[in-house]
Amino acid sequence: MRIEIVEGDITGRPVDAVVNAANSSLLGGGGVDGAIHRAAGPELLAACRELRATTLQDGLPVGAAVATPGFGLPARWVIHTVGPNRHAGQTNPALLASCFTESLRVAEGLGVRSLAFPAVGAGVYGWDARQVAQVAFDAVRSYVARSEEGGEQGVELVEFVLFGPETVADFRYVLEGAP
After folding, report:
1. CA distance 147 to 164
2. Burial (0-12, 13-18, 19+ Cβ within 10 Å), 12
3. Is 63 helix (H, G, I), strand (E, B) or coil?
4. Where is the Macro domain (predicted)?
């Protein structure tokens, strides 16, 4: 499995699935969530409303993940996950790690080979980008190691598609190590 860091817009990535840093309502919001909803089109909101009306009546829990079609996106799938909000006292890194591992689990179930993550939890949810990067890389590597031990052929490419040079620099620092 390859891990790559890309600066840019996650909504235009030519991957099998993109991960949406959603809120628990799944009904859109700001940042990455709003961008994905706008790019995917109104069908995404309709699919999320259907999830809320059926299997997720109380919303998507923090650290969980669920998939919908990608609709107007180049990606076939959107995997929605809810990061922990540090401002609301959700400071356990295990909750953040769960966002990445549960998204990978859902992706494997869909047969996804390439997956793009945003910096889940960074930004308005108050997590430091370097901490998000460390938790994310550790979670992805651990998940892949467990999958390979079980003989499973899963996701081959994980992109971290990040907004802004500062976040890119923080993720590269963690991935490549300090100079």
Report:
1. 32
2. middle
3. coil
4. 1-179
> Please, what is the end-to-end C-alpha distance for the chain in angstroms?
24
Rounded CA separation 58/51 (Å): 10
Q: Is the pLDDT of residue 179 over 60?
A: no
Q: Give pLDDT tens digits for 126-167.
A: 999 999 999 999 999 999 888 877 666 689 999 999 999 999
Look up tokens 């990067």; give the residue. Answer: 133
Query: Looking at this protein, which amino acid is placed at residue 164?
Result: G
Residue with tokens 């969980």: 64
Active-site residue numbers? 33
- pLDDT, tens digit (0-9, with 9 covering 90-100), for 86-107: 999 999 999 999 999 999 999 9
In the DSSP assignment, the letter for residue 176 is: H
- Nearest-CA neighbor of 124 among 86, 170, 163? 86
